[in-house]
Each structure stands twice: as C-alpha cells, then as structure tokens.
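pinging the channel bc i need a second pair of eyes. not urgent but kinda urgent?? the chain im working w is below, pasted from the shared doc
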Amino acid sequence: MASTYLTRTESSGNRKTGTLSFWVKRNGLGNGSLNQYVYSNWNVSVGGYLSGLVQFSSADSFEFSNYQESGTGTHTNLLTNKVFRDISAWYHIVVNWDTTQATSSDRYKMYINGVQETSFQQANYPSLNEDLYFNIGGASNPVVIGSNYGNSTYFDGSMSHYHFIDGTAYDASAFGEYDANGVWKIKTDVSVTYGTNGFFILKDGNSVTDQSGNGNNFTVAGGTLTNTEDSPSNVFATLNPLDTNPYGTEVSYSNGNLTTTVGAGNNWTNRYSFSTLAASQGKWYVECKVGNVGTANQFYVGVIKNRQTATINTSLGGIANGYGYYANSGNIINNGTDLSTSGASYTTGDIIGIALDLDNGTLDFYKNGTAQGDQVTGLDTTADWQFSGNAYQDATWNWNFGNGYFGTTAVASAGTNASGIGIFEFDVPNGYTALSTKGLNL
C-alpha cells in the first residue's frame, strides 16, 4: 500500500465516542522522522494542525492521538512501549475513545491481538466530555487512510477488515475471537452499531465499498490498491528485509517485500534475500519472474538450508547448504558442483518455478512452466529450508509465493492448483502447495 491512500468526506458525527478496528501487515518499518498513518482526520484549513491520528511512529511504536498544535487544548495520546517490527505477521489493532467516562484512563483504550495494551511511553488522556478531532465532518476535515495531510508519507503494508464506529466504544471482542488453538482471528459475524459515519471496508479484498450498510464508500485517491491472497487467516511467505547482515546489505524491497533489487554499485559481491517462512516437511511451490538478470547473468534462484554459510564471496550455488539454478548456464549447482547441466539459461522476463519436496528430499526447477535439468535428490529432510535468490549487481527478482502477482502485475492466466491455496502463473505440480500458514497446516 506504499504511496496509496484512500479518502472520504464525511458528515458531522459523534466527536466524544467511537472505535477503530483493523488488521495490518507491515512491509516497511521506521524511516527516520516519518510516521506511517493508518487513519487520519485532518483539518486542512489550518494546515493539519488539528487532527485525529492513528499511526505507527518512526520508531515502530503505535500511537492513537488527538493532535492540537494551535489554539486552545492539549495533545492527548497513547503511545506504546511495544514496537511492531514483525513484517511476517498480521496485527489486529483496536482503539476506542469515550470522553464521557468519569475515569480519565477509561477515555482512551487500545487492544493488540485481543489483549488490552497497558504499557505506554506516553499516556495523556482528554478532559471529561472533550470533543476530539475525529468525526468533525465537511470538506475541510477529510478522512484519509494510509497517508498524512499533504500526502507526503504513507503506510507501507497491507490492511484488512477495516471498521470505523461512530458513537460507540467497543473492545476487541466485537471484531475478533480465539479459535480452538488459542489463536486470535477475525470474527466473521460482527454485530455492531456503526452510527452515521461508520464504515466497513477491505473486507475480503481491495474493495473500498462500505459493507456496513451505510454507503460510506471511500475513493482510492493515490496509488494502486492491490488485492492480495495474503490475509490474517492465511499468511504467505514474502522476502525478509530484516534478514540483511552481512550478505543481504544493499538489497532493497518493495511491492509487499515480494520484489527484491540489488543495486548497481555492489563491487562484485553476492547479495542474498531469504523467505520469511521456512519448512522442514511438505511439498512447496513458488515462482520468481526475473525483473532484471543483472551484470554478467550472475543470477540465481533456489533454496538454502538452515539459513547458513552464505557469504558475500560465494553464490547460492557455491555453498554447501545452497542449491541454485544459474541464469548464465542453466545449470543447477550445489557447493560449486554442477548437479545438472541439461537446463536452459534464462534471462529478464522469464518465470522460474521451484518445487521443493521435503517429504522425499527432492528439488525441481521450471522455466516458463517447463521442467529444467535433472531432479535434485538427497536433500536433508531433517533441516529447515527457505527460498532464496542472489546476484552481484543490478538485478531484480519478482517473487510470487501464491499472492498471484509479479511486482504490481497480476499473473496472466492462473494455472491449476489442486490445493486451492495461492494463485500461480503455471500449473502447480501435483501434491505441492504455496508456502503459507494454511499450507503449513494441511
């Protein structure tokens, strides 16, 4: 959702009491002095100095804030001690406010994954019956989701099941519940009173049409709101931007951490990226579309065991725990040895499929849907394996772990997939599935 934001002009509503509930998965973390806005209600006539804000801070804490820089009144807020840096997880966050409560600490409340948050580095509560800068209404006070006033900084990640309640303070149990395994999940039968300005968007995809019955629809005012198979009920693997040192430095991540890019100035040293999820059993399929094969075709895709032994001096095919399909020759290489020499070379625009069988210890590669080289056998089925890629310079990978996109482009025509989990360009080999939480629990 980076550089994408939604807007709506609302009517005047209850300024003392309300609730916001949403699920978020972060892609980018703290970025210096800039916050990432999940919800904002700005008074644009005074340059945004009067505003209701819900945001991740530049230090990755979470804040609910009634911000008043000019005029009378105070800046009231809850700012967590907790930081939110797990880019592989969906968080359910609920904030509510009710300034009619006699006890000041009851006027703002926050819930993270069903549990009320009580540890704050800042906790400044509003006065009794104070009117907040939420629900003001009118063209001078637009609601903005995903950006700040002036649209200069954005939320970087995904959102789902986004509720706003006008006039009632609900706790997290109105929107979520525990499953039989004690995991907090979406409540599909939400029964709340939305009030005049209440809305429910992003229910099961990228629709900004209000599902509350109020007709309070939003507009995509900037960027592109892309649908994704990744959801709070089925988390897909991505690439991990936190896994960078020492051999992932100078790798940048975009498009939900599914596009990885190695820059042009990397002095002929190997740069790696790794999937957020690993597996030690099961059969897994992933696709990677080459965005740019890079300098001298020194480009690999493949798998790595126990996330070990990769160095800046060695490629994915050059290490004992790595198996790489090499763009320049089409060979499948492990520990510097060509295991197969019958595969085709590949280049920018080609789609490489990887089928990893950890029940039988085998590995197969595909180029544009056609099997390449000899099947690799003898993989360690007691180890944890991740998908990986590496290159020297000026290279780009666009991974599809089942989200159905290469970068910002949807697959041209989805292949068959017997597991029903994930969308891929080509037919998923029989018995294989996407590397996701549902896939891991088949």
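so Helices lie at 437-440. and The longest helix spans residues 437-440. — does that match what u expected or am i reading it wrong
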